[in-house]
Design brief:
Length: about 475
């Protein structure tokens, strides 16, 4: 059997070298190209078993190269890699026929395993993939953590289908955002996306909300009303907190999924609908099935494809980027200048527990936009409730003690500064001291300047002037 061959297309020589070294060590022959043009030219005379391409390169980019290759060699597995880890890149790659998506920086062993899987796929599969050349819309999902990359892969692989999906994740992890993304990146994107939260509706109204009702069906039903299934016809119905759905409604939902039709409450004529169901829950549905609180047959109907959303504490590397996004978004909503996170603040945020997940982080950023005194957000600006657990609170250096002996630390700082040849120490120390005192006082008074001025022993005008001088307005 001839040696398997992989072509590597990347304008970065370092990436080409790393992949060549790793794949050669795995007994794979490598041929490298620094541009898409040279790879396309070589494709006229030869063909690899797998092609790996960067997505952003001078001249022809990776997605354009992918499209051209699929026209000439529809069977050839193409792996797209990029340092720009976002959902749009992943979905675009899949929609244009990529075998898989490899975000940079990548683990070398993972890259080799992916190439070997693609080689095996090429040996077995001999049917061209369909290519959807519609551009991907934007999305609000943000994340570069490995767990989020897997979510992107699933969304990408589902982009050409309308199969049912079950999303599992703790409260605040962004389940509805993922449902929106599944809809936007699907053949039903032109249809409606209708959402219904089972936990937010009184149980005796859920049937009417889902299936609608006829005039006179019950007291107060003065006219015919369409339910969410009718509203979502041709599109997607998102059933959030599906675990809270009453058993009798579960039975009706199962019948709709099986037959594609239903009756309005009080109605006698069947209504046919074409609806994709995406369900979500923070609960353990398998456990609810065992406890006879959720129908097993409905569970299997919904659980065709499952997406497990990681809690924020399992994707800490995404926290700074998410926080910057929320600060910018909130500033735009309020028409104010966006706050900037100090590196120590990013570190503190990344170390917290975030029991409320992404939603809690977003709310924290909204609070900071309104309440943080200066443009730069320092660790002491963070809301006190974030430090409810001792492990969450930012720790002082081991050498520092704050038992009333801050003067000792100041003395030590002055000695070190003078030994280093510094002069004019007051002009350096006083602004920092005033800034710290101002920040703590404003946080203590929840932003009330008059009260903060009284705590500091200043007048209101003095506090206003100091805020301006220190750039804390």
């Amino acid at each position: 059997m001839s040696q398997d061959t992989v072509w590597i297309v990347d304008d970065d020589s370092a990436i080409r070298w790393v992949l060549e070294r790793a794949l050669t060590g795995a007994s794979v022959k490598c041929v490298s190209f620094d541009s898409a043009d040279s790879a396309l030219a070589a494709l006229n005379d030869d063909e690899p078993d797998v092609l790996i391409s960067d997505i952003r390169m001078p001249g022809i980019d990776g997605l354009t190269l992918l499209q051209k290759i699929k026209l000439q060699r529809p069977l050839l597995p193409v792996i797209i890699m990029t340092a720009h880890s976002d959902l749009d890149a992943a979905v675009s790659a899949y929609q244009f026929g990529a075998f898989d998506y490899l975000p940079k920086p990548f683990d070398v062993d993972d890259a080799v395993a992916l190439v070997e899987r693609a080689i095996g796929h090429y040996r077995e599969i001999r049917q061209p993939e369909s290519v959807n050349q519609n551009a991907s819309p934007t999305t609000d999902i943000i994340g570069e953590a490995p767990a989020m990359q897997e979510v992107y892969r699933i969304i990408g692989r589902l982009s050409l289908s309308s199969i049912s999906v079950l999303i599992n994740g703790e409260s605040g992890t962004g389940k509805e955002l993922v449902a929106h993304a599944l809809h936007r990146h699907s053949p039903r994107a032109a249809g409606k996306f209708i959402a219904l939260n089972m936990a937010a509706i009184p149980k005796d109204l859920i049937e009417s909300e889902l299936f609608g009702h006829e005039k006179g069906a019950f007291t107060g039903a003065g006219q015919i009303r369409q339910g969410r299934f009718e509203q979502a016809d041709g599109g997607t119905l998102f059933l959030d907190e599906i675990g809270d759905m009453p058993l009798e409604v579960q039975t009706r939902l199962l019948r709709v999924l099986a037959d594609g039709q239903f009756y309005r409450v009080g109605g006698y004529d069947p209504i046919k609908v074409d609806v994709r169901i995406i369900a979500a829950t923070h609960q353990n549905l398998e456990l609810l099935v065992k406890e006879h609180k959720f129908r097993e047959d409905l569970f299997h109907r919904l659980n065709v494809i499952r997406i497990n959303l990681p809690p924020l504490r399992e994707r800490r590397e995404d926290i700074p980027r998410l926080a910057r996004h929320f600060l910018l978004m909130t500033a735009q909503e309020l028409g104010v200048e966006a706050k900037v996170l100090h590196p120590d603040t990013e570190k503190a945020l990344s170390q917290m527990g975030w029991s409320g997940n992404v939603r809690q982080l977003e709310n924290t950023c909204r609070w900071l936009t309104v309440m943080a005194a200066g443009k730069e957000v320092l660790p002491q600006d963070l809301p006190p409730e974030l430090f409810g657990n001792a492990e969450d609170a930012p720790k002082p250096p081991a050498s520092a003690t704050f038992d009333g002996h801050w003067t000792t630390l100041l003395e030590r700082w002055a000695e070190q500064a003078l030994s280093a040849g510094k002069t004019d120490l007051l002009s350096e120390a006083l602004p920092d001291m005033e800034r710290i005192l101002l920040t703590v006082a404003l946080r203590h008074t929840h932003g009330h300047k008059q009260e903060a001025a009284q705590l500091l022993g200043w007048g209101r005008n003095t506090l206003t002037r100091k805020l301006k001088e220190l750039g804390m307005e």
